Structures are given as C-alpha cells and as structure tokens.
Automatic annotation (TrEMBL):
Location relative to the cell: Membrane
InterPro entries: MFS (IPR011701), MFS_dom (IPR020846), MFS_spinster-like (IPR044770), MFS_trans_sf (IPR036259)
Name of the protein in question: SPNS lysolipid transporter 2, sphingosine-1-phosphate
GO annotations of cellular component type: membrane
Biological process, per Gene Ontology: sphingosine-1-phosphate receptor signaling pathway
Top-level taxon of origin: Eukaryota
Region (Disordered): 1-20
Keywords annotated in UniProt: Membrane, Transmembrane, Transmembrane helix, Transport
Regions that span the bilayer: 62-79, 103-124, 131-150, 192-211, 223-243, 277-300, 329-350, 362-382, 388-417, 468-492
Domain (Major facilitator superfamily (MFS) profile): residue spans on this chain: 66-498
Length: 514
C-alpha cells in the first residue's frame, strides 16, 4: 500500500510540475491578492528555470514568427548566392578566366541545386522538415566559409564548392514554402508567401551590396564570402528553436487529417497530368532564365557601358587590387527596391483582381511578364548613350518581372494537395533551373565570347557582344508570358480537382474511439 501511495504521489508531483507550474504573476488576481482556488491546490508550485524557458519558447512558436524566420533564411539563401555574382569581376581577374568560364560558377551551382531538389522534395513530404532545413543551412554556410580560403591555383575547387553550396540551398528552397502553406490558408497564405518570396529580390540585392561593401572594406574580395555563413548558422538555430512542424494539410482541411498517403510514383504521374502545374513551371523557367543571366551579366554589362560612354577612364579592373566598378552595388540596391515593390504590387493586384475573376493569379503573372519584356529590351537600346536611362529601364522591367514570384507559389498551393506539395515545389524548382538559370549565364557568356573573337581588344565590341547576347532574354520572357496565359485556361479545373482529391484523402478529426 505504501509503494502504491508513493507512486501516486510521484505521478501527482510530475503532473503538477508539467501542467500546473506557475510564477507569482500567474497565480494572482487583478486586485493583486492570491486566488483562493489556486492557493488551496497542493499540486501547484513554482516553475523551474528550464520549464519557464520551454514555456516561453512554446509561446514564441506562432505561425507569424515561423514565417518571419523562414523568410529570413530565404534572404540568406539568395544573399549568399548573389554575393559571388557581386564580385564576379574580381573573381574573373583573380583566377584569370574568360566570360564563359566565370559563368560556370553559376551553372554548376544551379545544376547541383536542381538535381538535389527532387530528393529533398521526397524527404520533405515524409520526414521532419525543419530538421532538414537546419542541416541544409548549416552545410552551405560551412562550405561557403571554407571556399573563401581557396587560392587562385585551384579554380576547379572553387567551382566544386559552389556545387556543394547548391545542394545545401536546395533543401531550403524545396521545403520551406510547404511549411508556410500548412500554417496559413487563402488570402493570409498569399500574404505570407509574398513576404517569404520578397526574400528573393531582397536577398539577391543584399548579396550584391554585401559583396561590394565587404571587398572594399577589407581590400580583398574573399571577405565577401565570410559574412553570410555566420548569419546562416544563426538562422539554422532559430529554425530549430522557434519554427513548429505543422501537420501536412492542417490549414486546408479545417481540422481534418489525411488518412492515406499516395506513393511517390503516383504523385509524379498526377503532377504530370496537372496542366496548370506544368505550364506555370515552364513559365517559372522563363523567369529563372532571365534573372539568372541578369544576375551575373548586367553589372558587368553596365561597367562596360561606362567605358564606352567615356564616363570611366579605363576598364574597372585595370591596375587595381580590387575592381573599382560600382555597378554591382547600384544593381543590388535596385533589385532590393524593385523586389519589394514587385511582390507587394503583385499581392495587392492579385487580391483586387480576384474580385473580378477567379483566374486572376495566372493572368496577373502573364500581363506582368509581357510588360517586363518591353522595358528589358529598352535596356540594351539606351545603355550605350545614357546609363541613367538604362537604370530606369532595369527598375521598371525588374519590378514587373518580380510581380509573379509569390503568385506562382500560390498557384501551386491551389492546384496541388498538401501531401505532395514539397515534391511539387521541388520538381518545379528542378524544371525552372534546368530550363532556366542552370544554362543561361553560361550560354550568354558563350555567345558573347563567340561574337567578340575577332575584336577581343575593342572595348566597344566587348560591350556590344554582351548586349547582343543578353537580347535573348526578352524573347524568353515573352514565351513565359504565353505559358502563364495557358495556365489561366486550366487553372479553375485543376483547382477543383485538387479540392476533390483532398476531400477523398481526408476525414474529420472529430471521430474519437471510446
């Protein structure tokens, strides 16, 4: 009897410790006196410091806090990616490589990124997502830091390190949007995804600014690669501590839960038959083609334009320890501002147009893409005579181009059921990179090298050849606009199919066994 009594007392004490611990503020009434009911409860006692920390941690794990932290991680992903582009001239000078060879850095990065994306998509639909995210960020942060110590005799090793960074960043881009998709729904999800995808232009712009500022401050471009790793490791810790692991589909099912899970092969077959998903993925590839090429080549193109206009005395890297061009910094600032405007305008326009038509999402993307192509064409017409005019065209063209990032993600959330969203995001990423920025920087560099073979020493021809190569981008953007128009034709049917599939795979959570 005594052992039974001791056991019950230990259980009661344990239960009181977990569920009824409190501090002084929690047991007093508004008048400041002790509540009689609480005072008479023998199981109530003060929390230990560790329990207070855990309780505070749980209170901080709100959906909004999670979305902010995930967006911060996305900023770092793109900041690290574009830091290399921001010091591309310095890398080209230090390693003594041509246009096409320096573009290999981006091509190798994207190729490893897109190959790893389907793998992480499969893992993200089946295992703990925030653990995968944290490990991925820690991995690419470590590799980026180590790559800053590679000497110029080992360019191949530097290229390889960018491939490893691509694997780490792929885990984040494939999985993090699905967590936000499971925390919010409808217009609130659109708003949070807009905030999340705002990180793409913001992080990209900050990457250029960071790269330029760090190399100038330290007098060495290698220091540009030593800032983002520290921030990346901080983000990994924040994700582990404050981001919850929501049940897949919890926001969409209004309390229901999925009772069956389809196979990976079935998921892929269904996605291949989803016309809205296929066409929006192809449109996304067109955006990636243009942004990948611009990210590497526009700062270099504008630096060469300054030489042609005689506003720069000589090439930016001539007789300099570090390249003196400011175009990367200016382009980064423009990208930050246009990204903010584009995402906000895109979300507001879509919300407004949904009142007029249910096909608003793909139609807004199509119109913005077609408008963007016009102003991007004008960049290469104006740049030879007026650098300010070129910046204005870049500003308007990028704003229109960035309108569709968050909307494209929302289209996917509408037409794909929750249990295959990570796979869908991963394969959309794979497709957009395979057909987009995996090859566009190298292709533009290759065309530029081929065009100026006969006039290698001419500053004018170095400028013109790169401009002619970049003229390919507006035509690809127009093609992307056509794909978004095709998406609009099938959007309503595919959304209805996804809703029907979700209702078949789920059951109410109110059924309790007694």
């Amino acid at each position: 009897m005594r052992s039974i009594s001791n056991t019950s007392q230990r259980k009661k004490k344990k239960r009181g410790c977990r569920g009824s611990c409190s501090n002084l503020d929690e047991v007093r009434t508004l008048s400041g006196s002790m509540s009689p009911a609480l005072k008479s409860n023998p199981d109530l006692h003060a929390c230990k410091p560790g329990q207070k920390f855990r309780a505070a941690l749980l209170r901080c794990r709100s959906p909004v806090v999670a979305a902010v932290i995930l967006s911060f991680g996305n900023v770092l992903n793109y900041m690290d990616r574009c830091t290399v582009a921001g010091v591309a001239l310095d890398i080209q000078k230090d390693f003594e490589v041509s246009d096409s060879v320096v573009a290999l850095l981006q091509t190798v990065f994207i190729c490893s990124f897109m190959v790893a994306a389907p793998i992480f998509g499969y893992l993200g639909d089946r295992f703990n997502r925030k653990a995968i995210l944290s490990c991925g960020i820690f991995f690419w942060s470590t590799v980026t830091l180590l790559s800053s110590f590679i000497s110029k005799e080992y360019y191949w090793l530097f290229v390889l390190s960018r491939g490893l960074v691509g694997i780490g960043e792929s885990s984040y881009s494939s999985i993090s949007p699905t967590i936000i998709g499971d925390l919010f729904t409808n217009n609130k999800r659109t708003m949070m995804l807009s905030f999340f995808y705002l990180a793409i232009p913001l992080g990209s712009g900050l990457g250029y600014i960071l790269g330029t500022s760090a190399k100038v401050a330290a007098g060495d471009w290698h220091w540009a690669l030593r800032v983002s790793p520290v921030l990346g490791m901080t983000a990994a810790a924040l994700i582990l501590l404050f981001v919850p692991e929501p049940k897949r589909g919890s926001a969409d099912q209004m309390g229901g839960r999925i009772k069956t899970r389809t196979s990976w092969l079935c998921d892929m077959k269904t996605l291949a038959k989803n016309r809205s998903y296929v066409f929006s993925s192809l449109a996304s590839a067109a955006v990636s083609f243009a942004t990948g090429a611009f990210g590497i080549w526009i700062p270099i193109y504008l630096a060469r334009a300054q030489v042609v206009q005689k506003t720069a005395i000589a090439e930016p890297c001539d007789n300099e320890e570090i390249c003196s061009s400011t175009e990367s910094f200016v382009f980064g600032a423009i990208t930050c501002i246009t990204g903010l405007l584009g995402v906000l305008i895109g979300a507001a326009t879509t919300r407004l147009c949904r009142k007029k038509t249910e096909r608003a999402d793909p139609l807004v993307c199509a119109v913005s893409m077609l408008g963007s192509a016009i102003f991007i064409c004008l960049i290469f017409v104006v740049a030879k005579k007026n650098i300010i005019g070129a910046y204005v065209c870049i500003f308007i063209g990028e704003t229109l181009l960035f309108l569709n990032w968050a909307i494209t993600a929302d289209i996917l959330m509408f037409v794909v059921i929750p249990t295959r969203r990570a796979t869908a995001v991963a394969f959309q990423s794979f497709t957009s990179h395979l057909l987009g920025d995996a090859g566009s920087p190298y292709l533009i560099g290759l065309i530029s090298d081929s065009l100026r073979q006969s006039y290698a020493t001419s500053s004018l021809w170095r400028f013109l050849s790169l401009g002619y190569a970049l003229m390919l981008c507006p035509f690809i953007i127009v093609l992307g606009g056509m794909f978004f128009l095709a998406t609009a034709l099938f959007f309503l049917d595919d959304r209805e199919k996804a809703q029907n599939q979700l209702s078949q795979l789920s059951r109410p959570s109110t059924s309790v066994k007694v």
